[in-house]
Amino acid sequence: MGLYSRYILPRVIHFSCGLKPNMRQRAKVVPRARGCVLEVGIGSGLNLPFYDPAKVSKVWGLEPAPEMTRMAQRAARSLAFEVEFIGLPGDEIPLDDNSVDTVLVTYTLCTIPDTTAALRQMNRVLRPGGELIFCEHGAAPDASVRRWQDRLNPIWKRLGGGCNLNRPIPALLEAGGFRIDSLDTMYIPGWRPACFNYWGTAVPR
Question: Which of the residues 24, 42, 81, 146 has an alpha carbon 20 to 30 A from that of 35?
Answer without folding.
Answer: 24
